[in-house]
Amino acid sequence: MSSELIEKIRQRSHELDPCTQSNYSKFDVKHTDLSLSVSFETKTLAGVVTYTLINKDASNEVILDTSVLDINQVKVNGNSAEYKLGELSMYGTPLIIPIDSKQQEIQITVEYNTTDKCTAIQFIQGDTGPYIFSQCQAIHARSLFPCFDTPGVKSPYKFTAKSPSVCTMSGRPQPSSQKNIYYFDQPIPIPSYLVSITSGNLKKAPIGPRSDVYSEEPNLAACKWEFEKDMENFIQIAEQLVFEYEWERFDSLVLPSSFPYGGMEIPNMTQLTPTLICKDRTQTKVMAHELAHSWSGNLVTNCSWEHFWMNEGWTVYLERRIVGAIAAAEAKSQGKANPEEYGEQVRHFNMIIGWNGLIDSVNTMDPKFTSLVWDLENQDPDDAFSRIPYEKGFSFLFHLECKLGGLKAFDPFIKYYFKKFRYTSLNSAEFVKTLYEFYEPLGKASLLDSIDWNTWLFGSGLPEYPNFDTTLADQVFQYVEKWVTTIQNNGDILQQFSETDVESFEGEQEMLLLETLTEKFKTMKVSPDLIKKLPEIYPKYNNSGNGEFISRWNELLISFGKYNATDPIVQKFANWIGSVGRMKYVRPGYKLLISGVSLEFAIATFKRFENNYHPICKTMVKKDLGLDV
Ligand code: BES
Ligand code: ZN
Predict the structure, then answer these.
(1) How many A from CA of 463 to the centre of ligand 2?
(2) Rg of the chain over CA atoms, in angstroms?
(3) What tens digit of pLDDT does each residue of 19-77 get?
(4) I need a labelling partner for 179 at 20 to 30 A (CA). Which of 111, 150, 394, 625 fits?
(5) Rounded to 5 degrees, what are φ and ψ at 261?
(6) Distance between CA 305 and CA 366 in Å, rounded?
(7) Rounded to an integer, what distance in angstroms lies between the CA atom of residue 355 and that of residue 360?
(8) Catalytic-labelled residue, pool 157, 183, 193, 390
(9) Is-cis flag, bond preceding 602, omega within 30?
């Protein structure tokens, strides 16, 4: 039964990664040596990459992915060699290197330069000097170095960086006797999308016994304060949940504001957006998320971006387990009764927020990208990206947890799965197969048989509504009900509501409040005049510096307030989306300007700020605004 099922699942997705033009399946990568030299003058990198390959299939050529690179020279086994460039497509330009098919182990070296069209790096002016950072996920590594640019290939690395300023790369720092030369060693095999370089006037401060945080000097103390309370606790909880942390150190780097994501799980050097530094530790769960990737994604990796849900769904699952365990530990230290139960309430509360995000994304995304497994043939994975792989992936794992008998029954599987697949990359069929392999001997195959795998993995839209514990959400829902009845009865809202109402709420409950009000107001006829009174009722949301509040609060105001472009509310919000680079805020921000003000104003705002944005962010916003890319 199960083997037929798994074969069926396997057949519904590609055998090989469709987003690479390389012939990666013919080779094993024994080792990679990558050296990058930074020029802040020309805003390019000079690179040398050397691969030690095992030719598994007697191939007579090596084909690597490249994108907008200038290739200077190719060597095979140390000797200058012929090469060809294939045709340019949406996946870049393949670099084709003829080799002797009879030689089992072979060394390929490519010397090259990046160009100003590189989509993986951004040169910027930092607060204290010139700065460069890279971001390769999903398929931008090919514009940083020629590679088998698929998460299906892993290699141990040695990295060298040359730069007048401090460098970090995706490995453990090694001693260097030369000024301006930095060495890093990554003994654990990693895929190309985790390769990274940062260089700038970086300083570091300890935030745990095996963790430093890096940033430029002016923000360093604030970064340290934000994370030092939680860092080591996060690692220890994750170690109990999965198994020991294998990467030795977990350091992180808070980037300048144009960093386009919340965080990025670079091995040994997690990258973080500065929007996390909100001085109240309310966004540390992003750190928990990136830490969780040390197991899900970095040790155990999706074999192509078609199975991206396995990276992110698992990571959100682990992140929520960590957040729940921290809440339980805090409740315990405060002497509360049933701390474990409270931890679960917090975990479920986070699931409810996640579910709201899932509904939003399912409503706005192209239906073909609302399934767990994607078909990415001739697609840019950046276009498929949304919260769906995170939240639907999470829902799938939570569904399995519940079906199989709750935490106690699911926890041993977590350890088994991550041990089995560490250092490798896998697809969704192998995941399902492993579930059967683990639970069949425990007499639970029939539970697995009752799962509708086809709908879960390949169906579009929302999955079935999970059974959430709503204890913490109900407090918010009751308060929102008061809003609804007051409006229906034409009550005086200035008299009925004030900021003191929400004093007893936790930060996350307040976020749910703003989201739920927005949802309710969509279904009611709420006058713009009423909306315009909200800043008076809740001045703290209006003055917040926390992106999670700023984004939700402005969605509430600008969606229903009929403000015009010159209104200070709109101006302030437009300036904010120009000053942050995190796509989670920037992209919905422009969409809000389109729907709440005008397309014209959204485009004019984008033109004002486009040069601040990272190349990936700029491209995505242009697509959202209907501008040529
Ligand atoms: N790996 C992702 C970021 C990413 C995904 C970059 C796809 C490029 C392509 C990272 O781990 C992530 O998920 N970040 C989230 C954090 C959040 C879910 C806590 C983000 O950036 O918002
Ligand atoms: Zn992630």
Answers:
(1) 21
(2) 25
(3) 999 999 999 999 999 999 999 999 999 999 999 999 999 999 999 999 999 999 999 99
(4) 111
(5) -120, 170
(6) 17
(7) 9
(8) 390
(9) no
Tokens of 355: 């579910």
User: Which residue in the list 111, 290, 306, 344 is annotated as catalytic?
Assistant: 290
- Say whether 600 is catalytic: no
Nearest CA, atom 19, ligand 1: 286
Whole-angstrom Cα distance, residue 581 to residue 617?
Answer: 7
Specify the residue with its C-alpha closest to ligand 1, atom 17: 286
581 CA to middle of ligand 1, Å?
14
| pTM, to two decimals | 0.98
As beta bridge partners, residue 52 has: 31, 107
The one-letter amino acid code at 467 reads N
Q: Please choose from 261, 376, 583, 617 the residue to mutate so as to test ligand 1's pocket, defined by most ligand atoms within 8 A of CB.
A: 261
Which ligand 1 atom minimizes the distance to the CA of 382?
A: 9
Residues in contact with ligand 1 (CB, 6 Å cut-off): 137-138, 261-265, 286, 289-290, 293, 312, 385, 390, 584
Q: Of all atoms in ligand 1, which is nearest to the CA of residue 286?
A: 19
Q: Which position has the token pair 């970064």?
A: 223
d(CA 514, CA 502): 11
pLDDT of residue 254: 98
**Model confidence over 273-304: pLDDT tens digits?**
999 999 999 999 999 999 999 999 999 999 99
* H helix runs in 561-614, sequence order: 568-579, 583-596, 599-609
**Whether the predicted pLDDT of 629 surpasses 90:** no
Per-chain mean pLDDT for the chain? 97
Nearest CA to ligand 1 atom 16: 262
Ligand nearest to the CA of 272: 1
pLDDT digits (tens, 9 = 90+) for 65-84: 999 999 999 999 999 999 99
584 is in an annotated binding site: yes
| Contacts (Cβ under 8 Å, ≥6 apart) of 371 | 457, 458, 459, 460
pLDDT per position as a tens digit, 373-427: 999 999 999 999 999 999 999 999 999 999 999 999 999 999 999 999 999 999 9
What ligand 1 atom has the least distance to the C-alpha of 293?
A: 11
Alpha helices, DSSP H only, in 489-546? Answer: 493-496, 507-523, 528-537, 539-542
The pLDDT value recorded for residue 525 is: 84
- Distance between CA atoms of 324 and 330, rounded to whole angstroms? 10
Nearest CA owner, ligand 1 atom 11? 264
Distance CA 66, CA 83 (A): 13
pLDDT digits (tens, 9 = 90+) for 151-183: 999 999 999 999 999 999 999 999 999 999 999
- 265 C-alpha vs ligand 1 centroid, how far in Å? 8
Report the residue among 264, 294, 295, 388 best suited for mutation to probe ligand 1: largest number of ligand atoms under 8 A from its CB: 264
290 is a catalytic site residue: yes
- Using the predicted structure, report yes or no on whether residue 591 has a pLDDT greater than 90: yes
Q: Whose CA is nearest to atom 1 of ligand 1?
A: 264
- Residue 576, helix vs strand vs coil: helix
d(CA 251, CA 184): 13
Take residue 478 and report the two structure tokens written for it: 């009751």
Ligand 2 center to residue 570 CA distance, Å? 31
Angle at 42 between CA 39 and CA 47, to 5 degrees: 50
507 annotated among ligand-binding-site residues: no
pLDDT tier for residue 502 given thresholds of 50, 70 and 90? very high
